[in-house]
Structures are given as structure tokens and as C-alpha cells.
UniProtKB/TrEMBL annotation, chain A:
It comes from Microbulbifer harenosus. Its cofactor is [2Fe-2S] cluster; [4Fe-4S] cluster. Residues 9-92 form the 2Fe-2S ferredoxin-type domain. The gene is nuoG. It holds the Pfam family Molybdopterin. It comes from the Bacteria. Composed of 13 different subunits. Subunits NuoCD, E, F, and G constitute the peripheral sector of the complex. This is NADH-quinone oxidoreductase. Residues 92-131 form the 4Fe-4S His(Cys)3-ligated-type domain. Binds 1 [2Fe-2S] cluster per subunit. GO terms for molecular function: oxidoreductase activity.
Length: 969, 174
């Protein structure tokens, strides 16, 4: 007897005369797929449930052992029943399935050779699986006009087989409103009311959800190759701090084009992204191919060209990597001999290993986070709150099951989109629970959705409209301090013995609504609280923590949770960057850029100083005037960077750093999970991981004559260890030894030499074509594939191919299953964690009870007359607020211009009009913004777009009235 | 083509609000709202759809989905008289297809098209529920039964003669 899964209740079923034990409560299709049976399906999706629309998964159900005929049932709509007898192979079932396919194919074009789904098409797979290999239909096919759906998605409606998966994902799962099933009968059309950008931030998933080529990736289309010609490796998305797992695909074109990264697809991770990515994560990859990419080391010309250099920007010239390393080595040698101070500026978007290498090079006391004071303080606060034993950071499945969600101030739809998608599912958990009481299983999607009017309590407190407003049971638009008051009163109400709790004074929140909220929170067994660094308010984070502690106390007192983990409150705190929490482990709150600036200002004995900036843009963190002073105060700026930015424009030496899919490293997500990303491709030009540049230069500096004669022992030892590192996993181990919180890094993923049965994992599938010819235009000989010094993986097709045999394999493929839906072949059952997948390691942070720190108030709290001054509320956009994704062409093309949102009365007060260009000036900086009006923004607040390339750093927290004026037209 | 401004008229709003009172959910009134707009304007233009969407505060795509699902909601202008020609089996047995060909020839249009003078639109329909008096056609809300070529020609002449007195073929008596 074969077993599938290991959950609670089991059912014994017979399929084609063999007995199996399967999880009870699931549908038969899911059970068959768990047993690795090849049973075709279209409309069913593990995350979307069953609707029985496509009739493709038909099997025969027998009444009893004597029943020879049986009846056809749709397996996706049939719950497994203990003792039941089914047949997949019965001729009636096979004929029926083949007939369905043949019917679908009468209208499906014969365009596989020019279709971008070809080779990873679920429809191709299912057609072959059902045995329909000859076309008998000779008639005309139905045709449609296609729509322009924006720069991300191609539309080819002729290929549609009307499975309705697209609208079920887009509308039902992601909450989109602009994609609908139009028309009827033979003429059903999935599209928008008119041409235009699909406005839901998860539209990219249509590419994977659609079983055929109706929706395809338009960015991939521009440099398309077949799936089997891509090399892949597991990666982690670098565009926010959620830490979604991705499977980027790359291929060189053989003609020397350095742009190798072709696309990003989802890589299933049960605790984080499941089956879906957001559009910033899916389409943001283009930054690695952008025109601003740095491929070669560059040095600033010492002699200025004929007075052309405008301002402080320097003119750069390429130099060889050896010269660049030698140049950096000279700086290091001067540091060694005590003649130069080197200040290392680390990055929250680069790996722990890169930051550690920099820290090792310059020494802990010269290492600063590439963050301003405010941002780093917020991160340290998040870190302290998360260490408290009363809270834990929930994963996506836990958020989806929550019976109440409180979102405090964080615009997660724009700063942590995948979490917002999970919260959207949580809004249905009450409906699913009610369905359970009625004995309707959760996977009976259509039936469950019939239960209208039942909603999970969801409080969304925000500075402006959010994309979660449509599912919120209670919406509060407030300034941060009002949210703090609300959280505190809720916490009080939970802990107070008796009533007498008054609703806080917030416009739009009446006593009745507030009492309902308190009651809902008291009733909730699994509430989730979500907040984050977005509003840059430490008080808000602390209030969220206090509310979570109150929830934990309430749980313990009232629900008698036996499991200690169950008694902890779920608190998700969103951080800004992919490795924000990782960087916070490496430095203390003082090691920030403002502190560095102050120290430099007060330094009286000038010493030759180098700013060694690694993957950070100082001008994004600091007001330009401060960044200018910081840069002007040193005699050398060396930058390791992926793309040109305002800091690299001032650098004397620029070294090309690897982007996330080009090197191996560890990132810590908002939940405190350390995850490793692997090199997908070798990188182009002279690109290499930042730590390798530093290690190379450290080694070279040791060879410079006289270097070892001077300097202190400790510096010498540090540089020696840096120079000796060959594999990134050696840095991980060193990190684990240096920082107790990072101890799990030692166990994270296989070492570079840890092969499986002597084999490495192949990045390319067997069918990868053109291996011997791809470089023939330049060189007839076939090059030996580059070795990977960091992971037991090959940049070739040699080695382990199948995902279940190695956690490093990201190419979802199984015999007969060419599309990304092959993932179920590598799960014990659909939706369960991947087999053999290392899902990262949580940081080993010591539990410390958190005490609110009243001294740590928000900087620059308004004390003046509010009619004369304005609070700045940072606002975020999925497209526009991501530093790297702003370099992605498709994303940049739909990013709005930087804006400032005013309350109508404030706009009047300032004699401005909506749609007008305005300027905000502060300490010498001038931001040109588009004035917008919104009656949902609180009075005396200005919502300012944050993180946009044109105005990277945001104005300080408080702006005087005189600083806001009409701008240039 | 748009003769009527996209904004909903007071009569339309009055009718829609009256219908909305009958349903527990707002989404239920969308179809009736489409019908009301069509009753006043003859068809539902993009502008009308936009006006409805902003009045009912619903996504325009949702209205479009409904409008394109129901065949009697017109998203293109139609003639003053919409002729529904039955093409089901009883009418077919009694010469319905010949009659339809005759009609198409007289009006020089195919099903789904409108005559050049803007008077007639021809639509096919599966059954009008009057099989015992086949072949039948419906014009507006009026049935024409046991048709022959002669009576069909008479029907067209009558409709042409009537033109000008009754502006909308889809007009419903409330």
C-alpha cells in the first residue's frame, strides 16, 4: 500500500484495483495527483480550489466491487470516500477525457511553434496525456481580437480554452476588478472592458495560472527562449523584504549581449509565496539588464575633460579588473599601515556575506549601515520586538487562516504585496469556517463563495486609501499618532477587567464600530497584527507590539492554548529591503549615515579617508546636502554597485557588483528567516559578487611590499582571513561564528563541495540546446563551463535534473509535466511543502522581553502650530518605490510621477491646485512634485511618494508652510 | 453615433433607484440598470456604460460582462425595429429559413446587421414559444405569426408606415 501525505484522518481508496491510503477531506483529483497519477485537469488549481468547469478530470466511480459499469464523476468535485472504488484507466473515462480535449482543440490554434507557452504548456501536456494526437476537425476556428493589457502581459485570446482560471485568480483570489469573462457560449472572451494596463498588482501570475498561451510574459517576449533553453537556480526576490522564492531563467545569446537574465517565475515556498508572486517581483528583474548596469570597473578621470563635468559628477573610464583590484589594494595597504581610514558602508539589499566581507575589511568600528538614522532605528526596533517571546512572525498560510487581521499603518499592498495577498485570503477565512460547519469542504470554491455576507473582521488603519479597503470590515484613515492611540485603546480593552473603554477620537470611527472591533478581537482565536516601517514611526511599531502582547496575554488567559507557540501572538512587521533584518544584525543603531556625518563634521584632525560604499546609494538615504557634505569630506570614494546611481557618479573607483541572481548569498526576510539565493548565471563582463572584489583586493594588498611590516595585528588577521575566503559558504560559517543570532547560517544549504552521490545539480535541463554552437560566432571551440565555487551546481546540463533529488533544482519539470504545474510532482500533496526543499533557517535570536522605550520618540515631532506646518506621511507604490525595480524598463514605463497628496482644505490653505507642479524645499534640497488632492488623507499631513528615483530621499518628517510653493511648470 | 449624453438622465436614475429597492444586494440591480438605459437610449454605448459604472460604483468590466452575456442588451446601435427571427425546428419545418432568406434579401442585411436606412435590425433567436403558429417572428414586443412571404412583406410595409409614431422598437409599456 502506498501512502501519500501524513495528515490526520486517512481514507483507504481503490484506484484501478490498487489500494491507497490518502488524506481524508480532500478531493479525488488532489488525491490522485498526490499519488503521482497522471490525471489531466484545467480549471482546478491547488490555491483556487475546484469548480468542475472543464470536465477534464473525469474518472469512473464504482458503486461496489460488483459494479462493472460505474458512473463518470469529475474527480475535482468528488470528495475522497473511505472504501470507494475508482478508475482512471477505465475506457469510458479515457474516451470522455479525450473527447473533451478534442472539443477544446477544435478552436485552439495550431500555433505551438510560435507560441511562447510552447514547451511549458499545460494544455500541450494534457492533450498528450489524454492521447489526442491527431486533429480530425477541418472546420474554421473561432477567432478573437486581442487587447493591449500594458507592458507586462501579452494577450492572445484565440488560444483560450475557457477554463475560467484567469478570472478566478484575478478577481476571486487577487481582488482585481478589470478582468472579466465577457460574452457567452462559443464566444467567451477574457479581457478588459477596453484596452489598457491590468491594474491589479498580481497580474503577472496570469502567465502561470493560464494553462495555455493566452496570457504570456511580455518582458520575456522581447528576449524569448524556450523553457528548456533556460538555466535556472533557486533565488530569493530582492524587491522587498517578504523573501518570496523565485526561479529566474537566464541564457546568453552567443553574440556577446551582456543581458542574460530572461525572466522570473514563481518557485513554490509554502511558508512565503506559495504559488504567486507580485508584479514588482516578477517584472523587476529587468534592472539587471538595464542601460544603467555596470559591467566593468571604472575609474574617475583625474584630469577633468574640457570643463564639461557638471557639478560634482565625475567622468569615468573603464579599467581592467586587475588594475581596479590593484587600486583598491593600495587603499587597503594604506589602511593597514595606519595612514588611511577606510569607512565601509553596507547595504540592506545585499547579502549578509557581502556585508560581512566589508565589515571584515574595514573592521566593525568603521562599518556603517547604508541607512539613515531613522531607518536603522526602525529596523533595530523591529528586531527587538521580534525577539520578544510573546510574539512570532506568521507565515503566509497562517495569515490566510487568521480569523481577524489588524493592519496598522503599513500599506502592505505596496511595501509587502505578497502579504497583502495573504490578508485578502484571510478576509474569506470566516466564510470558509462557516462552510466547514455546513460540511462544505474549503476546496468547493463556488459553493463556499455562495455564502455571501460572511467576512473575517479586518481593520485597515492607513494614511490614505489602500488596495485592501474593499475587503476591510473597518477602515480608519488617520495620522500615525491616532493609530497609536487606537492600538493602545484596543490593547487596554483586551486587558481591562471591566468596560469603560472609550473609542479614540478618530474621524470616521464611531463608538459602535469600535465596540464591535473590541468584541471581535476578544473572540478571535488566531488574530494577526500587521504593521511595518513604512510610516517611519517608532511609536507605531511599539503600539503594534503592545497590542500583540495584549493579544498574547488574552490568548493565554482565555483560550488555554496548550501549545506554547499557539499562545504567542502573530505579529508581522514589514521591513523595507530584502536584507534589512540581516544588516540590522551586523551593526548597532549608532552605525548609521547621519551619525557618520556628524562624526565627520566634528573631526578636527583630517586624515586621508576613503568611503567604501557597497551597493548603497547615499543620496537615497540622506538629503542631498548631507550626502554632498559626506562625499566632499573624504578624499576617495570607492563604490561596489550594480547600477549607476547618484553615489557612483561621485565615485573615484566603481567595481561592478553582481545582482541577486548572479551570486550566492543569504538574505534575512521580515519574518527573520535566513534564505539563500544561488547564482542563476555567471554574470557578464567583469561582474562578480562584492565580497570577491574585497577578498581579491585584500589578497593583493598583502602582496604589496612592506604591507605586513606595519599595522596592528588585528587588522592583519582580519585581512588575512578575508583574503583566504574562496567559497561563499566559508563566509556563512564565519558569520555563524561571529554572531550568535546568525548561527543557523552554518547549517543553511549545502556547501560548495557537498554533492549528491558524487553529482552536482544541473542548472540546465537535458534538452538545453546549442551548447556546442552558442559561442560559435566568436569561437569555434566549446568552452568548458565555468565552475561554481559556491554551490554544488553546474552551469551546464550535467548533473542532477529533477527537483525532488536536490533542493538546489529550480527547474520545475517531470515526465509529462512541462509547465510550472509540475511542482505537484515534488510535493507530498498539492499545496504542501516541496520535497527536499530547504526552506531557510530562522535566525537564532535570543528571547528578550521587550520593554517600550519611551525615550525613543520619533524625530522631529511637530510641536508648532499645526496650521503652519505639515507632517510628512511617506506613501509607497508597488511601481516606483523599489530602488532596483525602478531600473526595470516595463515597470518604469508605468510608474507615476512623484506626487504630494493634500487634504482639500490644506490645498486651499496653501493656495495650490490639484494637478499643479509644486516644490518642497528643505535644508537646501528641492523636490518637484505633482500636487494631488484626496479627502482621505488626514488634515495637516502631506502624503509624499517615497523611494521614487527622481526624489530618492524624502523630506524630513515636518515641513513648514513656507517651504511649500508652486513649482516650475 | 452617440446622440444622448453619457450622463444618466433623471428618469433613468429614478427608474434604476426604483429597481434597486427590490434587491438586497447592489450587484443584483446591474442587469436591470442596463435594461433601463437601453430602454431610454435604444442601446448601451461605452459612454452609457461608463455613466452606469460611476453611478452604481461598480467596476465597468463587471457591467460589460453582463451586457455581453445577455443577447438582448445591445452594445451597438440597432435599428428602430429589431426583428427576432426564429430559427428553431418548428419554424424551420414550416419554411422559416426561406422566410428569413426573403427578409434578408428585402432588407439587404445578414443576421446581426441593421438596414442602411437605420429602420431594421435582424437577429436570430432559438425559439419564441409559439410553435403551434410557426413560422413566427417578433418585432419589438409584437409577435407576427404563421408568416408567409406576402404577410412578411405586409409586415415590413406596416412597420415602415408606422415609423415616426413610435420611436423605439424596444419600448416597453410600464
Amino acid at each position: 500500500m502506498l501512502k501519500a501525505g501524513n495528515a490526520q484522518a486517512m481514507a483507504t481508496i481503490t484506484i484501478d484495483n490498487r489500494q491507497y491510503e490518502v488524506d481524508d477531506g480532500q478531493n479525488l483529483l488532489s488525491a490522485c495527483l498526490s499519488l503521482k497519477k497522471n490525471l489531466p485537469y484545467f480549471c482546478w488549481h491547488p490555491a483556487l480550489g475546484s469548480v468542475g468547469a472543464c470536465r477534464q478530470c473525469a474518472v469512473v466511480l464504482f458503486k461496489d466491487a460488483d459494479d462493472q459499469r460505474g458512473t463518470l464523476v469529475m474527480s475535482c468535485m468528488t470528495p475522497v470516500k473511505d472504501g470507494a472504488i475508482y478508475s482512471i484507466d477505465a475506457p469510458t473515462a479515457q474516451d470522455f477525457r479525450a473527447g473533451i480535449i478534442e472539443n477544446l482543440m477544435t478552436n485552439h490554434p495550431h500555433d505551438c511553434p510560435v507560441c511562447e507557452e510552447g514547451g511549458e504548456c499545460h494544455l500541450q501536456d494534457m492533450t498528450l496525456m489524454s492521447g489526442h494526437t491527431q486533429r480530425r476537425f477541418q472546420g474554421r476556428k473561432r477567432t478573437h481580437n486581442n487587447q493591449y493589457l500594458g507592458p507586462f502581459i501579452n494577450h492572445e485570446m484565440n488560444r483560450c480554452i475557457t477554463c475560467y482560471r484567469c478570472v478566478r485568480f484575478y478577481r476571486d483570489h487577487a481582488g482585481g476588478t478589470d478582468l472579466q469573462a465577457l460574452g457567452r457560449n462559443h464566444q467567451v472572451y477574457f479581457g478588459r472592458q477596453e484596452d489598457g494596463l491590468l491594474d491589479n498588482g498580481f497580474s503577472g501570475n496570469l502567465v502561470e495560472v493560464c494553462p495555455t498561451g493566452v496570457f504570456t510574459d511580455k518582458t520575456y517576449s522581447r528576449h524569448y527562449v524556450r523553457k528548456w533553453d533556460l538555466q535556472t537556480a533557486p533565488s530569493v526576490c530582492e524587491h522587498c523584504a517578504v523573501g518570496c522564492n523565485t526561479a529566474p531563467g537566464a541564457r546568453r545569446d552567443g553574440k556577446g549581449d551582456p543581458r542574460q537574465l530572461r525572466r522570473v517565475t514563481n518557485l513554490f515556498h509554502r511558508q512565503i509565496n506559495g504559488y504567486f508572486l507580485c508584479d514588482r517581483g516578477r517584472f523587476g528583474y529587468e534592472y539587471a539588464n538595464s542601460a544603467a548596469r555596470i559591467y566593468t570597473p571604472q575609474a574617475a578621470l583625474t584630469q577633468p575633460l574640457i570643463q564639461t563635468t557638471a557639478g560634482s559628477a565625475k567622468v569615468h573610464q573603464s579599467l581592467s579588473p586587475a588594475d581596479a583590484v590593484a587600486r583598491l589594494a593600495v587603499t587597503i595597504a594604506q589602511m593597514r599601515s595606519g595612514n588611511r581610514r577606510v569607512i565601509g558602508i553596507g547595504s540592506s539589499r545585499s547579502s549578509l556575506e557581502n556585508n560581512f566581507a566589508l565589515q571584515t575589511l574595514v573592521g566593525r568600528e568603521h562599518f556603517y549601515a547604508g541607512l539613515d538614522e531613522r531607518s536603522l532605528a526602525l529596523l533595530k526596533l523591529v528586531d527587538r520586538i521580534q525577539r520578544d517571546p510573546r510574539v512570532h512572525s506568521p507565515g503566509t498560510p497562517e495569515i490566510e487562516r487568521a480569523d481577524m487581521v489588524i493592519v496598522l499603518g503599513e500599506d502592505i499592498a505596496d511595501t509587502a504585496p505578497r502579504i497583502a495577498l495573504a490578508v485578502r485570503q484571510a478576509a474569506r477565512s470566516a466564510q470558509i469556517a462557516r462552510a466547514g460547519e455546513l460540511k462544505i469542504p474549503a476546496w468547493q470554491d463556488d459553493s463556499v463563495r455562495q455564502l455571501t455576507g460572511i467576512r473575517t473582521p479586518l481593520l485597515v488603519a492607513s494614511a490614505e486609501r489602500t488596495d485592501l479597503d474593499d475587503i476591510a470590515s473597518c477602515r480608519v484613515r488617520a495620522a500615525p499618532e491616532q493609530m497609536v492611540a487606537l492600538a493602545d485603546v484596543l490593547a487596554q480593552a483586551l486587558t481591562a477587567e471591566s468596560g469603560e473603554i472609550h473609542a479614540p477620537d478618530i474621524a470616521g470611527l464611531d463608538t459602535g464600530e469600535f465596540t464591535a472591533l473590541v468584541e471581535q478581537l476578544k473572540q478571535a482565536r488566531h488574530p494577526v497584527i500587521v504593521s511595518g516601517c513604512g510610516l517611519q514611526s517608532q511609536e507605531l511599531l511599539q503600539a503594534a507590539a503592545r497590542l500583540a502582547f495584549a493579544v498574547a496575554g488574552h490568548k493565554e488567559a482565555n483560550h488555554r492554548q496548550t501549545d506554547s507557540r499557539e499562545a504567542r501572538a502573530a505579529l508581522y512587521l514589514a521591513c523595507p529591503e530584502a536584507n534589512s533584518l540581516g544588516l540590522a544584525q551586523l551593526c548597532d543603531a549608532r552605525q548609521n549615515l547621519n551619525q557618520l556625518h556628524r562624526e565627520r563634521q566634528s573631526e578636527h584632525t583630517p586624515q586621508p579617508t576613503t568611503l567604501l560604499v557597497m551597493e548603497a546609494d547615499l543620496y537615497r538615504q540622506l538629503p542631498a546636502s548631507v550626502a554632498d557634505q559626506l562625499c566632499a569630506g573624504v578624499d576617495e570614494i570607492i563604490q561596489l554597485e550594480i547600477v549607476h546611481n547618484r553615489t557612483s557618479a561621485r565615485a573615484d573607483l566603481i567595481l561592478p557588483a553582481a545582482a541577486t541572481p548572479e551570486y550566492e548569498g543569504t538574505l534575512v526576510n521580515s519574518g527573520g528567516l535566513a534564505q539563500r539565493h544561488y547564482a542563476v548565471y555567471e554574470g557578464s563582463g567583469w561582474i562578480q559578487a562584492s565580497w570577491r572584489w574585497l577578498a581579491d583586493a585584500a589578497a593583493a594588498s598583502g602582496e604589496l611590499a612592506g604591507a605586513e611590516l606595519s599595522g596592528d595585528e588585528e587588522t592583519h588577521a582580519r585581512l588575512q582571513s578575508l583574503a583566504r575566503w574562496r567559497h561563499v559558504t566559508q563566509l556563512s560559517v564565519a558569520l555563524a561564528e561571529s554572531y550568535p543570532e546568525l548561527a543557523p547560517l552554518a547549517e543553511l544549504g549545502p556547501d560548495w563541495d557537498q554533492t549528491i552521490e558524487g553529482q552536482k545539480t544541473a542548472r540546465q535541463p537535458h534538452r538545453y540546446s546549442g551548447r556546442t554552437a552558442i559561442q560559435a560566432e566568436r569561437q569555434v571551440a566549446e568552452y568548458k563551463p565555468l565552475p561554481d565555487d559556491d554551490a554544488p551546481m553546474a552551469f551546464s546540463m550535467e548533473g542532477i535534473q529533477f527537483a525532488c533529488q536536490s533542493p538546489l533544482q529550480a527547474n520545475n519539470w517531470a515526465p509529462g509535466w512541462n509547465s510550472n504545474q509540475a511542482i505537484h510532482c515534488y510535493q507530498p500533496k498539492p499545496g504542501a511543502a516541496r520535497l527536499g526543499h530547504s526552506s531557510g533557517q530562522p535566525l537564532a535570536r535570543k528571547a528578550v522581553v521587550f520593554h517600550s522605550d519611551s525615550a525613543a520618540g520619533d524625530a522631529a515631532r511637530p510641536t508648532a502650530d499645526p496650521s503652519d506646518g505639515f507632517r510628512i506621511l511617506p506613501l509607497y507604490r508597488m511601481f516606483g518605490s523599489g530602488e532596483l525595480s525602478n531600473y526595470a524598463g516595463a515597470i518604469a514605463s508605468v510608474t507615476e510621477e512623484p506626487f504630494a497628496v493634500f487634504h482639500p482644505q490644506d490645498l486651499e490653505l496653501l493656495s495650490l491646485t490639484a494637478g499643479q507642479q509644486i516644490a518642497i524645499t528643505e535644508s537646501g534640497d528641492r523636490w518637484q512634485l505633482l500636487a494631488k488632492v484626496s479627502d482621505t488623507i488626514p488634515r495637516h499631513c502631506i502624503g509624499v511618494s517615497t523611494g521614487f528615483t527622481q526624489m530618492a530621499s524624502i523630506p524630513g518628517a515636518y515641513i513648514e508652510r513656507e517651504q511649500i510653493a508652486p513649482g516650475d511648470a | 453615433m452617440e446622440r444622448i449624453t453619457p450622463e444618466l438622465s433623471t428618469e433613468e436614475i429614478r427608474d434604476i433607484d426604483a429597481e434597486a429597492g427590490h434587491y438586497p444586494h447592489k450587484s443584483a440591480v446591474l442587469l436591470e440598470a442596463l435594461r433601463i438605459v437601453q430602454q431610454h437610449r435604444g442601446w448601451v454605448s461605452d459612454g452609457s456604460l461608463q455613466a452606469l459604472a460611476s453611478y452604481l460604483k461598480c467596476p465597468i468590466a463587471e457591467l460589460e460582462a453582463l451586457a455581453t452575456y445577455y443577447q438582448l442588451i445591445f452594445r451597438e446601435p440597432v435599428g428602430k425595429h429589431v426583428i427576432y427571427c426564429c430559427n428553431s425546428v418548428s419554424c424551420w419545418m414550416l419554411g422559416g429559413d426561406g422566410l428569413q432568406a426573403h427578409l434578408q434579401n428585402r432588407l439587404q442585411i445578414s443576421p446581426g446587421e441593421s438596414s442602411r436606412d437605420g429602420l431594421f435590425t435582424l437577429l436570430e433567436t432559438p425559439c419564441l414559444g409559439d410553435c403551434d403558429r410557426a413560422p413566427v417572428m417578433m418585432v419589438g414586443r409584437e409577435m407576427y405569426r404563421q408568416l408567409s412571404r406576402e404577410t412578411l412583406d405586409a409586415m415590413l410595409s406596416e412597420l415602415r408606415a408606422r415609423d415616426g409614431q413610435q420611436p423605439m422598437s424596444d419600448h416597453r409599456e410600464q
